[in-house]
Amino acid sequence: MILVGHDPASAVYVRNKVRACEAAGIHSFTHRLHEKVENEELLNLITRLNADPSVHGILVQLPLPAHIDMARILETIAPSKDVDGFHLYNVGALVTGNTVFSPCTPYGVVKLLEHEGIPVEGQNVVVVGASNIVGKPMALMLMARDATVAICHAKARDLAQFTIGADILVVAAGVPGLITAPMVKKGAVVIDVGINRLEDGKIVGDVDFAGVSRRASHITPVPGGVGPMTVTMLLVNTIESAERFYAAQRTAS
Predict the structure, then answer these.
(1) Are the beta carbons of 178 and 207 closer than 8 angstroms?
(2) Which residues carry a binding-site annotation?
(3) What is the pLDDT of residue 155?
(4) Domains of the chain: total
(5) Which parts are annotated binding residues for NADP(+)?
(6) CATH code of 25's domain
(7) pLDDT tens for residues 79-101?
(8) Domain of 156: which CATH number?
């Protein structure tokens, strides 16, 4: 794990990932870099980790300071070690279904649906939020499972006309309380990916949990819902990376 700067939230996320690795028996180590680190120093570190056969997963904690070229950094990570699933190849290959690693948050959402036995095939799915990290890959992964998917921006005109028809509603817009009960069909499955810190320090999602939970058949809480699944899928991707590496070694020998 590579942590740049002293963002408190990022430090907490990295600490949680370290603890999860320890619990799963995965060896992890964290490179902590100054917030004024130059792009080249960060790129050189990633290049060394790419070449290190003892490293099976590389994670750069986001967000990065404004002067860092985030796209260049993420694209320097070897796709075979990109356990976050953010590399251009891994995101783009979702279109054809040949990705090496799926992005952890939408991957976690898919696993939640599978675990609960919630059918995806033929369902009307609305994804609110069109980020490269969650919204777009989420839509592609559900399309690959034969869902009919609409993807909306948080600023969509009359957002409710889209969300009210959703059998499965995935919200990842970063707007606290964006989705209210009248916007949700009775019996819908609601996945809240949003994590927002209010002025009083309270952590809330993008969905009005109290109101929507009275209409939804299933709903994820914030915190404690999708967040832990994101970390879990990071571990799954890392273990798969190690298994592929050692399988290739056995084949070569």
Answers:
(1) yes
(2) 129-131, 195
(3) 86
(4) 2
(5) 129-131, 195
(6) 3.40.50.10860
(7) 999 999 999 999 999 999 889 99
(8) 3.40.50.720
Phi-psi region of 61 (alpha: psi -120 to 50; beta: other; left: phi over 0): beta
Q: Give the range of the structural domain holding residue 205, as residue numbers without chain letter.
A: 104-226
Please pick, among 7, 36, 52, 61, the residue that the annotation labels catalytic. Answer: 61
Question: Which of 8-22, 51-65, 121-135 has the weakest average pLDDT?
Answer: 8-22
SS3 content of the chain, % helix, strand, coil (to 5): 40, 15, 45
CA angle, 134 then 139 then 144, to 5°: 125
What per-residue confidence (pLDDT) applies to 9?
81
**How does pLDDT run across 132-159, given as a tens digit for each residue?**
899 999 999 999 999 999 999 988 999 9
Any catalytic annotation for residue 17? yes
Q: What is the pTM of this model?
A: 0.93
In a domain, 241, yes or no: no
* In contact, 241 and 212? CB cutoff 8 Å: no
Q: Which amino acid is at 115?
A: H
